[in-house]
Amino acid sequence: MRLCDLPRFQPFANRALGHTRSALTAMALGALLCTTAGTAFAQGTLRIAMTASDIPLPNGQTDQGAEGMRFMGYTVFEALVAYDLSAADKAAPLMPGLSTDWQVDAADKLRWTFKLRPGVKFHDGSAFTAQSVVWNLDKILDSKAEQFDPKQAAQGRGRIPSVKSYKVINDLTVEIITAEPEALLPYQMAWIVMSSPAQWQAMGKSWDNFLKKPSGTGPWKLESYVPRERAVLARNADYWNKAHTPKLDQLVLLPVPDASARVAALRSGQVDWIEAPPPDALDSLKGAGFALTSNVYPHVWPWHFSRLEGSPWNDIRVRKAANLAIDREGMKNLLGGMMVSAKGMVPPNSPWFGKPAFEVKYDVPAAKALMAQAGFSKEKPLKVKAIISPSGSGQMQPQLMNELIQQNLAEIGIQVEFDVRDWNALLANWRAGAKDPGTKGAASTNSSYFSQDPFTSLIRHLDGALLPPKGTNWGYYADKEMDQLFDGVRNSFDPKVQLTSIQKAHEKFVNDALFLFVAHDVAPRAMSKKVKGFVQPQNWFLDFNTISMDK
Amino acid sequence: MFTYLIKRLLFAIPIALAVTALCFSLVYLAPGDPLSAVLPSDASQDVVDLVKAQYGLDKPVPVQYLLWLQRAVTGDLGKSISSGRPVAEEIGKAIGNSLLLAGLASTLAFTVGSALGIAAGYRNGSGADRAMSAIAIAGVSIPHYWLGIVLVAIFSARLNWLPAMGAGPAGSGNWTLDHVQYIILPTLTLAAMPAGIVMRSVRALVADTLSRDFVTGLIAKGMGRGAIFRHLAKNIAPTALAVFGVQLGYLMAGSILVETVFTWPGTGLLLNTAILQRDIPLLQGTIFVLAMFFVGLNLLVDMLQPFFDPRIKRT
To answer: Rounded to 5 degrees, what are φ and ψ at B92?
Structure first.
């Protein structure tokens, strides 16, 4: 609504017309303010305020983490393997993307073939073929290839550690060889999106130029791009999946890193949707008629224990006691309901959860009994040092949550001393591992974890072969049984067998209380009630194709 | 004057070197990894080391600094680690937006502050003087980011009159009348503090000048109010100009919070992003350009002062 349309403005304008000086003032003010917040958008334009501080690069293997992939990676571009994001009530499984079918060779478990979807074209009109796939893998893996892009390599190569080589079999078939048997390859390939080789050629073989007119195969085309300010994505009317062509005309992406600014932008009608509204704004947004959405998704907020010699967390009784001491419902109230109590590394409704014998719950007497068995009590506490951060990407409300944990653990005889570090410093130590001198005697670290697939949710944290610096087994956990379970996951090529292997591994995570399981984030979003057809899946990524805007 | 100009320009060289060296050291003293914002958070140390080598961040810090300096003297400020775009291009765009905002805010602050300051100075000690001084103290004391949030809450969130963020309906650039609405709230927010400072400075100057003997002499000669005001203006202009220059410099470099509150794509927001992302080339380049802007602005003010007051000589 423009100011001049407001009833309260009209009497002012009428009165002003009677007086020359006032009229001039009113005209000037009117001219100025009639241009205000009422910029009309065509029906079917959805404006989103992201938390990122910049527009994710529209190069293909984009930056800005999972948020970048959510808004730019999987909208303009696509991967061979996709996530089924259609349902809110179950974990999002893999489904065919640019590949219609993938198989491992029954006689050689290192050899995979991916059958490609016929008839797919990039936005520039060139055909998507097996050559395009190989070209894109070279883009991030072969530093001698002319299309190699260090920026995209930084984002992508760590996602496909198993890929050893690849080649074109025919126009619609690609072969990928893995270094070791790797049943999780489809999950890895779901990260790798395809940029158009023809467009890169047309843009003078320059990735910087490609950014000005990118081309993928996705349901959205980049219409305009102002770095650090906005990107406009337009519906791709020629999308190969006619039944799933976007309903909206445009998707406008705005980087608004400041949470208060996002809330103000939504309330002023400048945007229709904001990511991650601050917890203290949820009630007021709800009261003002905005829709709040949330859903559990693969994101866990734990304490990662050091398992080096001398760590207090080497005692399973202490680990179990700590897990029984946390008042997760109280924490949920503190966070305005924006969390799900963690009972393991994956949410309790995940198919990977299994049926662990140990139940993670709030049971202080049981926790105290376990601590007594271990020789500790409130009067004779166990002292632990914990690395935490005051804030950080995806870290929810770390200070608030950790203070409650500290209070809860004190009740059962665990005295926590915090080593508060800048988020980047915490990450640097997390990569360096618990043995690094920078750990300074701490026996746990607190980083929220992306747990989208079996590797990121389970294997990378505790695989004995992934000790730092090669991997991110921060606590130097080493257990032959667990390694065998992980091998089982990697070698289970039958989906049903693989599921059972993942469940067994997760059951061991819970039964041995290998982490302090605290919370799962629920990805809160606030949006105008004009936004229709949105389904918030249990996933980091979203499907914008089903969304429409009411008038 | 020419010798003075050359001397001042030469002084700018050690200032620039000191600024860049200090900035480089501070960035490396801060904990964490410069590549944290670029890499996926779950990247292993192996991947981090590989990318570090690609960006030249595996070299010793003094070597990195010298390499940067070598390029900087040719005008190449490097590429942003996070976006890959040339730093000069990033700053060039942002500095235009900040200049616009800071220029408007300074002009508003100077106009309002001078008007109120002159009025208060003429009525020194009166109720009106005290009221205007109270307004000035409020302007100086209120944190501008807080004022910004309040203005947004009233004019954007509640009344829906003005946009809460951004620089234009389709971003900055290609300025049209539609862009005016976007600059009103950030300008008012940014102008509040310097308006108070200018008002207090001008008020003191006016009151002091009016109490001088030459003014009494002018009144005794029967000179009119307008003529006396011209004499007054000439006397207060050099100092007021110096205050204006300093404030414009502060607004250019010191608007980080205001630009963040309004998501205004200027150097403040760019600096904020660069700090949070540990984007060393961008941080280095932005601070360097802002420091040089400050030096240049002070020089310009020094050069202009003799035109208003011939007693001031620059040699």
So the answer is: -55, -45
Q: Per-residue pLDDT tens for B135-152?
A: 888 888 988 889 999 999
User: Which chain B residue has the Cα nearest residue A469?
Assistant: B45
Q: Is A393 on the interface with B (CB under 8 A)?
A: yes
DSSP chain B: -HHHHHHHHHHHHHHHHHHHHHHHHHHHHSSS-TTTTTS-TT--HHHHHHHHHHHTTTS-HHHHHHHHHHHHTTT---B-TTT-SBHHHHHHHHHHHHHHHHHHHHHHHHHHHHHHHHHHHHTTTSHHHHHHHHHHHHHHHS-HHHHHHHHIIIIIIIT--S-SS-SSBTBSSS--GGGHHHHHHHHHHHHHHHHHHHHHHHHHHHHHHHTSHHHHHHHHTT--HHHHHHHHHHHHHHHHHHHHHHHHHHHHHS-HHHHHHTT--SHHHHHHHHHHTT-HHHHHHHHHHHHHHHHHHHHHHHHHHHHH-TT----
Enter the ipTM. Answer: 0.78
Confidence class for position B37, pLDDT limits 50, 70, 90: low
User: In the prediction, which pLDDT does B2 show?
Assistant: 77
Q: Which residue of B has its CA nearest to A157?
A: B47
- This prediction has a pTM of 0.83
- Residue A410's nearest CA partner among A433, A428, A386, A436 is A386
Q: Looking up tokens 């949710």, which residue turns up?
A: A457
Which tokens is B273 given?
Answer: 């992003």
Distance (Å, rounded) from C-alpha B103 to C-alpha A222?
34
Name the closest residue on chain A to residue B150, using Cα atoms: A264
Q: Which pLDDT tens digit goes with each residue over B73-119?
A: 888 888 888 777 889 999 998 998 998 999 899 999 999 999 999 99
Q: Which amino acid is it at A259?
A: A
* Rounded CA separation A200/A202 (Å): 5
Instruction: List the single residue in B with minimal CA-CA distance to A140.
Output: B51
Minimum-distance CB partner of B162 among A36, A151, A257: A36
Tell me, yes or no, if B160 comes closer than 8 A to chain A by beta carbon: yes
The rounded distance, in Å, linking the Cα atoms of B196 and B219 is 30
With contacts defined as CB-CB under 8 Å, which chain B residues touch A258? 260-261, 263
What is the rounded average pLDDT for all residues in chain B? 84
Chain B residues whose beta carbon lies within 8 Å of the beta carbon of residue A446? none
Tell me if residue A411 falls in helix, strand or coil: helix
Residues of A in contact with B272 (CB under 8 A): 53
- What's the whole-number average pLDDT of chain A? 90
Tell me which H or E stretch contains A141.
Answer: helix A130-141
8 Å CB contact of B163 and A268: yes
Question: Each residue of A461-509: pLDDT tens digit?
Answer: 999 999 988 888 999 999 999 999 999 999 999 999 999 999 999 999 9
What pLDDT, on a 0 to 100 scale, did the predictor assign at position A391? Answer: 78
- Check whether B285 has a pLDDT greater than 80: yes
Q: What is the reported pLDDT for A12?
A: 37
How does residue B18 score in pLDDT terms, banded at 50, 70 and 90? confident
Decide if A265 and B40 are in contact by the 8 Å CB cutoff. Answer: no
CA pair distance B187, B264, nearest whole angstrom: 11
- Whether A418 has its CB under 8 Å from any CB of chain B: the answer is no
Share of chain B above pLDDT 70, in %: 94
